[in-house]
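Known limitations

Structure tokens in this collection are predictions and should be treated as such. Users comparing against experimental data should check residue numbering before alignment. To illustrate the layout, the record for (2Fe-2S)-binding protein is reproduced below. The input appears on top and the generated tokens appear beneath it.
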Amino acid sequence: MRLNVNGNSLEIDADPDMPLLWALRDIAGIMGPKFGCGIAACGACTVHIDGVPVRSCSLPVGAVEGEITTIEGLSKGGELHPVQQAWLEEQVAQCGYCQAGQIMTAVALLDEIAEPTDEDIDNAMGGNLCRCGTYPRIRAAVKRAAALKTAEL
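Generated tokens:
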């Protein structure tokens, strides 16, 4: 089957029922999305399909239609995406395991709401778990990313 991932067309040999996460990691070698729970409850595996965040651990690869974007596909021309830059500036990551999913969810939020409130951020990010408890830094980074994106315009 053919997948469009991060602007590249990939031909993969996978069972259509295989979760997208495993097709990306084990077959395509794209390691950004992480396995956290396997039941779409933690968000570590979040990727975008046509700009919509999805949990790749529970989505069969055979059901995927559209452009897949992983954290590896956010940077353009070697420059960090504003959300990635904000994550660094706010020193969000501790262990870092959940960060790819957190960032992908934050990107989708800011694509939908340019200047999110605390409530918007909490609602959007609430399904992404961080065992290190960096939630206040995540909120600060989302706000900083919104400001960075606005400054780019």
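For this record: The longest helix spans residues 135-152. Strands lie at 2-5, 8-11, 46-49, 52-55, 67-69. Please report discrepancies through the issue tracker.
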